[in-house]
Amino acid sequence: MGAQRKGAPRVSEDVELSRQNLQAILLADSFTTKFRPVTLERPKVLLPLVNVPMIDYTLAWLESAGVEEVFVFCCAHSKQVIEYLENSEWYSHPGFLVQTIESHNSISAGDALRFIYDQQTIHGDFVLVSGDTVSNMPLTDLIQEHRERKKKDDKAIMTMVIKQSKPSLLTHQSRLGTDELFMVVDPSTKQLLYYEDKTDQGKGTICIDKSLLMNNPSISLYNDRQDCYIDICSPEVLSLFQDNFDYQHLRRHFVKGVLVDDIMGYKIFTHEIHSSYAARIDNFRSYDTVSKDIIQRWTYPYVPDINFSGYRPIKLGRQGMYRASEAIQSRSAEVGPFTVIGYDSKIGSGAKILNSVIGDRCSIGSNVLIEGSYIWNNVTIEDGCEIRHAIICDGVIIRAGAVLQPGVVLSYKVVIGRNFVVPAYSKISLLQQPTEEDSDEELEYADNSSGTADISSGLTKLNIQTASEAAETDSWTTSELGPGGAGYIWEACEGAHDEEWKHSVAPIPKDKLAEITQATVDDEDMLAQDDGVLPPSGELKSDADSLADNEYSNDDYSIFEKEVEATFLRAVQENVRVEHVILEVNSLRLSFNMETADCTGAVFYSMLKTAMDMPHNAANELKRNAESVITRWKGLIGNYVKQIDEQIEVIMKFEEMCQESAKEFAPLFTQIMHFLYDNDVLEEDAILKWAEEKAGADESDKVFLKQADKFIQWLKEAEEEEDEDDD
Amino acid sequence: MPDIQSMVGEFLNMLKKRKIEGSQATARQTAELLRSVISQQRVPHTNQAGALIDAVKAVGEQLIAANPVELAVGNVVRRVLHIIREEDLSLTTAVMAGLDLLDVSDDEDDCKRSSHPAMSAAVVAAAARSTLRPPSLQTLLEGTPDSATVPYTSSSTGDSEGKSKSADKSSSTRKLKHDVIETVNQLISEIATCHEQIAEQAVEHIHQNEVILTLGSSRTVLEFLCAAKEKKRSFRVFVAEGAPRYQGHLLAKELIARGLQTTLIPDSAVFAMISRVNMVIIGAHAVMANGGVIAPVGVNMVALAAQKHAIPFVVLAGCHKLCPLYPHNPEVLLNELRSPSELLDFGEFSDCSTLLHVVNPTFDYVPPKLVSLFITDTGGHNPWYMYRLIADYYSADDLVV
Shortest Cα distance from A525 to chain B (angstroms)? Predict the structure, then answer.
């Protein structure tokens, strides 16, 4: 009986599980500012991607993948998103329920999920995507897989979709413009064990906890996978967000948090897709790449010539050329392959359009060159303009002869003046750049509430201004964008300036690539020089140990030297007694396991360093400084120069310093040596021995020997004299 | 009763997302949808045919636009329009013929039974048509009286019972609608049974110990071959795998399951193997009015190879695949380019995609001169005769929907 009773509810539960509506959460806000200034006026999900708003790609995919209920979470510009959805055909789709959730005070994905949790609308496994995802992957099998795993193991709360995509060797960037991603996955269970997308590229190293190796029989480390940001989640994910109120970012906080946390023991799994397409538009570069993929039909059936949303399909001609039937094109205009031309657009004579997308109702003058650019709707481009790798939003007017250099972004209704040259990577908007910058990039969030309200009023004001008093000093200076121009050039954010080329629509410029290539070559050289590089796996043999040891001690010595220097500096400043300093240095020697000769070198180095750090104008003053320090701390150095070897160490050290770290001492070499001799730090035997040793060295090494020639001669003579005297 | 608008919407959505594969399924569903459109359409007293035509056209336009590549949709829409016109014509001629007992004003449902064992409506229609339009080649050749021309509108399944019944009801205003629905039903069953109709003819074409070559997978071809096998013909089949979708593999599996000796070859080996082949049999995606064939990619190559070796190239096509349009018409979208991911993995080439262009067309166009014979459910036809056959199925008025 008991067994039966147990069995019965389980069956019904199973039935319930399978019958349950498949739900999806679509975040219609990326919570970043990468698409600024465009996103100040329109939410990112409504930006056209090959003439269709991004959100339509996501919804169409979800709909055909069998999702029955979608919650669209709107935050920034929520009104616009809701209005768009209401007018679209998504609300009227049978068997596909689209609901909007509006929130005004969510500033991150974490907040959004907490908000949704409070609404109690999700009751089962759900698909979590953002509204800028383009994909055609089937979901049913994946969800089945997730559910089965969940049934076996309660802790498997999330399945992440990944896809192969090699990052560039030079820039450590995927083709979507995101940073190189490192993942450790258990090859048999596909469990995700480690996730790192912010690697220190300078070093080219990542640190993996060694317990990963201990706890798993085998692991695979990937750096050629791309995170598609498509997750199948169990309801626990939402409650986890609720419990950890500081989780903001889905990956940086949530995924890493779950991976690190071993109390709850939740697990994340990965699912790799091969033949289907999935990508998220994260920045301008991915906007460019995904657009190209769509035009090349990787996203089939979500391609411009198929009417998958309410938009009119554009007929596909030869060589990937999509042209709307109503577009008017001059006979002499040249339209290259992989180009999309929208409805009612006009293209003038002699115009050349390559690899670009042109929206509806644009007018393009004669002899215009457009290459690799994205031109949205109602744009006017007058004769003779040159546009390369730019994004041009709705309603922009570009006056005759203007030139847009690669990477330019023109926001809504900007006017570029006649013959004006827009510098590369500049971003231009009618709205002023917000001045208050939050320190945290994630929290730096479109101040939508004020922004949206301002636009309408702002725009009318602008129109009036441009019409009536273009010459007068308006809110912007007319000179900024050429005669008759309208808009502000945004300053690149500090620090981000160098990175601008990484995320821009423009391909990475050649000189930049050359620069990076050079840098990596240098890096490799440097690594090769100080034999710090791990040898290629095959070579890890017995000599590896000695190599490592060598490097280790080298490293140790420099640390020891620093410690001694610090001790000495403190002694100078606080006027510590010599005996105490000796004690301290000795203890350092013990703790670092060093020879006394090492101490000699380090102490002497510190002394001269101190002398050099004292204010001085000429060589004379420097000499005086050095002399005073040596006189003051004769006792200290004296403690370490009891043997000839140690004295030679001092000379060698001094020579080394003169050559490398303290070149100022170079001309004073002999004089200071003489001084040291006078003060009994160095004995003549040591100096002569050094000279003997050096005599056999290379010419280049003999610089100081030659300088000290006279001194040595004198020493020798004195010795002979002494000898004679003795006789 | 389900809301017609939502039904249309759902079907449109499926067409748009390319979720229905295969012209037979598409044709059947289109016909069923149009049947419900017709049955739900309220008809005025006058110009009933006009109202129906408008309703069907309105839906048809949307359907065709949803997936212009699937020509079967347009074909069925045009067939239904033609049926409406024919039935309308037959009714009016019946009236014109002065069948005295007809009382047009009587719009009650209970009808007056005509005492005359009148000619069936279709016969009248055919007679009327023969006066309006030059007679079809079939009529001329067969030289039979008018009554023999009946089958080509209603096909061989046209049952006398339905006709006499409809003739009986000729007085009702709902008559037209009823007749149309009746004939559309016939069309649906015609589409559903076209495989068997075609397969019946298999023994006439496939002979003992022959070697048959086919490419890709087609249900019509499968049924055709199996029908010959069931008639105790022993023969061998070469299947070209049909890259990049490799549907030939599926066909080969099916054939083996039915006990046929099968050889699977890559597409590129077709020319090498063709000299051992006695006949090429291919399933078409659509047959154009000039006799040209739209078929899975690779078929043109097979046709050229067959021509080189003077091997008969036979195309099987159900009646719903006959398209009244000509391939040179710019409105006809002959091909669809599918995702390059069927050819190669995305990751492999992700870093050089700006220079790489992958083209993955679905169909080939085979010009009529390469085709030896068409086998439709009404029998075998020469490619040059197709336009005539098509003229029997569609009205000239509907070519542009």
Answer: 27
DSSP A235-270: HHHHHHHHH-TT--SIIIIIIHHHHH--SS--EEEE
CA angle A227, A230, A231 (to 5 degrees): 110
Q: Are B230 and B206 in contact (CB under 8 A)?
A: no
A442-458 pLDDT, tens digit per residue, is 333 444 433 333 444 44
Q: Which residue of A has its CA nearest to B342?
A: A275
pLDDT in tens, A666-716: 777 788 778 888 877 777 788 888 777 777 767 666 777 777 777 778 877
A701: tokens are 């090494």
CA atoms within a 13 Å half-sphere pointing along the CA-CB vector of A135: 28
Instruction: Give A355-421 as a DSSP string.
Output: S-EE-TT-EE-TT-EEES-EE-TT-EE-TT-EEES-EE-TT-EE-TT-EE-TT-EE-TT-EEPTT-E
From the list B66, B341, B353, which residue is nearest A292 (CB)?
B353
Could you say which of A64, A298, A337 has the minimum Cβ distance to residue B346?
A298
- Rounded Cα distance between A467 and A455, Å, is 18
Q: What is the spatial distance between Cα B35 and Cα B179, in angstroms, rounded to a whole number?
A: 11
Average pLDDT estimate for A601-607:
81
Q: Could you tell me if A315 lies within 8 Å of chain B, comparing CB atoms?
A: yes
CA gap A608, A621 in Å, rounded: 13
Cβ-Cβ contacts under 8 Å, A95 against chain B: 10
- The ipTM estimated for the assembled molecules is 0.77
Tell if the CB–CB gap between A275 and B17 is shorter than 8 Å: no
pLDDT grade for A471, boundaries at 50, 70 and 90: very low
Query: Do the beta carbons of residue A613 and residue A656 sit within 8 Å?
Result: no
Residues 319-358 of A with CB under 8 A from B: 319-320, 337-338
For chain B, the average pLDDT equals: 80
DSSP state of A666: G
Q: How far is CA B4 from CA A69, A270, B10, B39, B62, in A?
A: 23, 43, 10, 10, 14
Residue A718 sits at the vertex; the CA angle it makes with A715 and A723, to the nearest 5 degrees, is 125
DSSP H helices in A385-509: 448-468, 496-503
- Tell me which residue in B342, B345, B357 faces A320 most closely, judged by beta carbons: B357
Contact B294, B365 (CB under 8 A): yes
Query: How many whole angstroms separate alpha carbon A604 and alpha carbon B139?
Result: 119
- CA of A57 vs chain B CAs: smallest distance (Å): 12
Q: Using a CB-CB distance cutoff of 8 angstroms, which residues of chain A are in contact with residue B10?
A: 94-95
**Sequence-separated (6 or more) residues with CB below 8 Å from residue A420:** A399, A402, A403, A481, A482, A483, A485
Which helix (H) or strand (E) is A709 found in, with range? helix A709-726
Q: What is the DSSP letter of B337?
A: B
